[in-house]
């Protein structure tokens, strides 16, 4: 293939390959021909650019969870054009998809997310707060790079399958609404992972690493809606305020905090509380994230539910609806998977950053009052997340870790010190560092998929550990059987912002 390239392009590819292959150093002798092929394929400048541009496009769409129609389509189309069979609208969610290539066992899955966050709009690679559209959504968690990297990795694996003809199936799971932790429990319930032998998860980061063991919190995402009676605000005695019920519920949960085990997290937003002070609101809703460890979260949810009932009782209103949007477990990352990923992370190595990229990182760090260290230069060490558990964030990847061996590759691109779910992360998830970081992440995912597809002894390590763990911890969903995916989530918000963002893009 390369001999047919024009000379100039060959030189560019060769110099990139020198960096990529050269940095593999002494272990080069052990690299299988399949792995070599995926790394070379991903190192081509036109491939780096192709997926970099996809990432930037998804970044500019900035679509909120369950409304990622353009982002999901772009990724699914890219995989289909590359020869994958794509099932769209899976698990009852229009933006969910599964793309498959190959046949038979083993089946290796790669997870991919693409949703943005509300209120974070920001210009790319500008180191001071400067929104594109004030108040619009933005990619403050790097999800624009993630399903993009997963797709690049899977298409690279296809190249190796086509050339060397080994057996097995590679799948990309396009997973909507990760920020609201919605898709995975529904995807599992729909049986999408039933035949999958192992899963490679990924997340954008400032570092390059992986970990194993217990991580993050389990979580219930619940909307409590109260129903009261309207009345004139100046003669309110005939009314029953649903907003009062929300207020009393929130006072009660804030007192509850004192008596929750310290690993908990709990936060809420009032998503409806009336429209004018002179009309007693007959409807009000509050949306809670209720987080704790797997063994504590169900009891915590029951206690928050009691606070909601107290709000209704005190105000003479009705707790009209308790809508569980999602309920998920902690992450239980597979150690053998993480060990395999770590080897490939060390093998691929941290991308080289230009002076301009270090300078941008330092300018952003300065603006945030952080240490001006620039972009990172070293990959991370393998770590056990579960050594001291103090609670924290959640991901619906936790569900997947309980049904098949799974671990997460964190790939670079973000600036160290940039704040998660903040304009500073939006600023650095765009452009050159994001392109290089997602490319490095794709290489590790593709190399790891090759190992799992071509070395049965590697896959067996993951499977044996998983079988032993799941015998002790059988999967039992927290999600109630009658829960359905909240397809209306963010619909109105996104309709409003989409118009303004598209206007700006034109
Ligand atoms: Zn995220």
Count of helical regions = 15
Mean pLDDT: 93
First CA to last CA: what distance? 39 Å
User: How large, in whole angstroms, is the Cα Rg?
Assistant: 24 Å
Largest sheet: 9 strands, mixed
* Ligand list: zinc ion
- Strand element count: 13
Which bin fits the share of residues in helices? 40-55%
Order of helices and strands: HHHHEEEHEHEEEHEEHEEHHEHEHHHH
Name the structural class: alpha/beta
The low-pLDDT segments are 1-26
Fold and architecture overview:
The two termini are 39 Å apart. The chain is α/β, with parallel strands linked by helices and 506 residues long. The strands form two sheets. Strands 1, 2, 3, 4, 5, 6, 11, 12 and 13 form a nine-stranded mixed sheet that branches. A four-stranded antiparallel sheet has the order 8-9-7-10, with helices on one face. α9 (335-348) crosses α13. The chain has helices at residues 7-22, 33-43, 45-61, 69-81, 143-164, 183-189, 242-256, 297-315, 335-348, 355-367, 397-401, 423-428, 432-454, 456-472, 491-505, and strands at residues 85-88, 97-103, 107-113, 168-175, 198-204, 209-215, 218-227, 265-272, 283-292, 318-328, 331-333, 383-384, 406-411. It is built from 15 helices and 13 strands. Residues 141, 143, 178, 203 line the site of zinc ion (ZN).
